[in-house]
Structure formats: structure tokens, C-alpha cells
Amino acid sequence: MSLAAEAFVSQIAAAEPWPQNATLYQPLRGNQVLMLSSVPQAYLRMCGLPVRVCCRANAEYMSPSGKVPFIHVGNQVVSELGPIVQFTKAKGHSLSDGLDDVQRAEMKAYMELVNNMLLTAELYIQWCDDTTASEITRQRYSSPYSWPLNHILAYQKQWEVRRKMNAIGWAGKGLEQVYEDVSQCCQALSQRLGTQPFFFNKQPTELDALVFGHLFTILTTRLTTDELSERIKSCSNLLSFCRRIEQTYFEEDKDSQSAGSQYSRGPSLF
Amino acid sequence: MAASMELLCWGGDWDLPSVHTESLIVLAYAKFAGAKLTVKPVDWTWRTITAVIPQLNYECSSVTEPTQILNFLRKNRFNADYELSAKQGADTMAYIALLEEKLQPALLHTFWVDAENYSSLTKPWFAAHSPFPLGFFVPGRLAGAALSRILLTKAEAPLHSITEVEGKIYSDAKECLNLLSHRLGTSLYFFGNAPTSLDAFVFGYLAPLHKASLPSGQLQQHLKQLHNLCHFCSTILQNYFTEAGSGRPHSNQDAVDANLQKLTQLVNKESNLIEKMDDNLRSSPQHRLNRAHRPAPKPSFQTAGRNSTPA
Hints:
heterodimer, A: mainly alpha, Glutaredoxin, Glutathione S-transferase Yfyf (Class Pi), Chain A, domain 2, four-stranded mixed beta sheet, 11 helices, about 60% helix, globular, B: mainly alpha, about 65% helix, membrane (chain A), transport (chain A), Glutathione-S-Trfase_C_sf (chain A), mitochondrion outer membrane (chain A), acetylation (chain A)
């Protein structure tokens, strides 16, 4: 979105309070290999804002920027964590108001580290590693479509991701190197977290939501090897961090399981 | 280290040891860590098109990419990060990721995609510093790589053109510069009193933006307002790269020419101001009574004024 459009949307957003029927759309569970629905969900739960989760096969096409998941609130559709944070801030809910400038700089830096390293590594492992791509990713990505569309879309997506990896210089990296990078990133996060309950003081911020979302997704998704989740599990404080957030913020999901079947049962760390 | 390490990089200009960001990062880190590198500029050689810059050659192996080169230097005991705690090491990784994600696209855009900057500064420089036939290809190739990198990483599916992404990447870059400025505060380097790899990265990204004479540089204007970052660049240049600056008499001559130009511009501004003041004076109420008596002098003064401006 251009800057003027963003400012305009923020203004409109500020006008109304958060509605009860806000919805989060994500692709079908069996479809995407690594889903990141946990990131905005965790953030919204930390803010205490109610949101329903809806699974749709064409979620990627409904999203304004092509990224899933996205939220539909009132008359606006917002995707990606950055714009969602701004959107909720315009409505008056923010998690990072208590931080001073230096801390905010650190938070943004760590968020970029997670985006840069973890997200790119996830994409690499899904699409650039031949075994994973052929056995798991392409099958799952193309499952809702019939022949020949499934092949075309899967290969198109793979080609796009490989092009992007080329542009940022990850194409030459081997799988071992990527695992090594993920380990280093996890160690950096582990160092930063230390023994605190959250990354910044006692309050969760968007960094916590982002880290939780990525780590949870990696830990609960089945790939050809468990190498990636093993590397994360080796940092024990990150593992307990994820469990703690799941217990605190996603506990009510389990309670309402018996209540209605519109909440699809998601994976769990337990 | 009996054998010496050789670094291939782009040459220097604008008071910098190199105009290329990644080469600058490696050069700065080598100075901080005390590693002796033989610097071989690739200017005017065929390596401008064949080699991946920067490239460190040691014995028979070669390493490319700043992060890999820094790791290599660290393994060979040239470590500028020795004094850092584990948390500071983690912070370094995070800030480097911030620079790469938020600042680098805008820098690439400023130097390689913005039409005015590219045609008047970047392209002539790189074309002049490449051997004869390559001067036609090298800048175009680098510009194409820069554009595709920006589009692939920042432009989402519906926004395939560069114009929609421009606003976003510049605002991200300005935010990044503000964050760096907050983090640096009033200290000399990012972690205490000794420079580390983070300082090398920040210097590599900021120094060309600070020193190059860009015709259209909104990001440069923004950087100039952040005095602690400008001071940071000048300090590193002064403390670690002074021999590069003093060994080139051309830069002194350029400085003198630049001063002369500034002086001329000031004189012209002054004369324009005087002309305007005079006009205001003449059109003021006290003078209106006398204007009927003296209509002639005004036009002649104006023509005289116009002749004096292109001095």
C-alpha cells in the first residue's frame, strides 16, 4: 500500500472500535507446509482482541498483498504483521508503548533478524531443497487444485522462490549452511531472552508474537527430517518460552474445542 | 601469518577508500581487527566483470561476501568482536539484519535506480573505472542486479513496478537511520570505545551515502540531520583511513575547487538578495511618491543585475 493509502486507512481505523466478528483467514491446514497463522493470532491474543480463524483454500488470493494470513476487520483487510500492528495501534491497542527509543530500536532489529533468517530459511528448506520440495511441498501446495493447474501453480511458486533466493544470495548456500544459520539465529534469540519471561521486561511485545509464531510453526510441522526442530529444541529457554505463550494465550482454544467445531483443532507443542 | 591476504575491491573516491559498500565493510573490519590486507582495486581490469567483489584471496582459497570474509578473518584470529558479551553478539546479528532489510534497498535505489543519480554519478563513475569495452556493460549489469533485488524482496505480487515500492523503502530507510541514531546515542562506537563488526557494517552502508555528491538525495538529506551518525563516519575515516585521504593530492585540489564554487554561489545568492531588497524598497510606500520622478533607473539596474549573476 502506498503511504497515503496507509495513512488514510489508519484514520478510518481509528474511528471505530474493534468489532466482535474480526476474522483471520489462512489456507487449509493440509495445504501450506509451514503456516504462519500463529503470528498475527498470537499478537491479537496478547492485545486481548477477539478473532475467529477461518480456513480457505484461496486465502492467498484474497489477501491484498498476496501474503497469508490476513485479517478482515470491519471493512478493512490487512495482511502481514507490520500493517496489522499499525492497524491495531490506530485503534488504540499497542504492546510496545512502554518501550523507550533504544529498546524500540532493538525490538525492530530483532524482528528483522527473525524475518531475515528464519523466514528465508523456512522458504529455502521448503522450496529449494529438492527432496522436501518434491515429496512434501509441491504435493501440499497443489492439493486443492485439479490437473494440470496443480503442477503449473506448484512449479510457478517454486520458480518464484528460487528467483528470490538467487537475488539475495542464498542460492549458493547448502542445506547444512542454512541449518547452521538457523542455529546461530536461535542462539542469538536465546541470548537475548535469557531467563526473562518475555523479550522486553514482563510485557509481551510484537517481537514475542513473531518469535513464537515462527518457532511454533517450525516445531509442529512435519518435514523430511527433524533437523530444524532439533536445532531449536537445543535452546531450552526458547522451548519453554513457546510452551509458556501457548499455555497463556491459546489455552482457551482447548476449552472451546468441545463447544463448537468451527475452530479447527490445531497442532500443539504438548 | 606468513602469506599475505589479498583483497579485491572497487577503488576509492569522494574521500573514501572504496565507493562500494561491501568492500568498505571488509576494509573497515580489517583495520579494526588489525589484519594486514593487500588491497588490489579491480578498477580498469577485466576483473570488473569476471570477479565477485569483494573477494579475499589467501593461499589458494578465496572467500566472497562480507559476512563470510569476516568469519574467515575471525577464524584466523583477527577478531574485533573479542570483547563483546554474548548478548552484544546477538545484538550485532540483529542490527546487521535490520541494515540489510531496511536500509540496503533504499541505498541500492538511491545509487542505482534513481535516474538522476544513476546517470550523473554512478554510471559515469563505474564506466570510467572499467576498461574500454566493459564500461558499457558493467554499470548496466550492476544496476539490473540492484533493481531485481529490490523488486524481488520488497515488491509484493500486485506491485510489480518500482514506483509503488519507492515510498515504502525510503520511509523504512529513514526509520532505520533514526533507530541507528537512537542506538548510537552519544557514544563513539556502538559497543563501548572500540569499534566492532557492527561498526564496520554501519560504516560501509553509511559512508558512501554521506560522502557522495548526489544530485537527488532525500535519504542523504535525512542522514545529514542525524549528526551523531555523520560524526561516526568522519571519526572512523579520520582514525583509520587518514593515509588513504592524504596520499591523494587530487582530493585537495577538488576541495579547493569545491570551496571556490561554494563561494561563487554565496556571492550570487547575496547579489540576488540585494536585488530583491532593492525591489522591495522601491515598491515600498515611501518610494511610491518618488517613483514618478525616477522611472528610468529601475530597468537598467535589473539588466545590470542579470549580467552579474552568471559570474
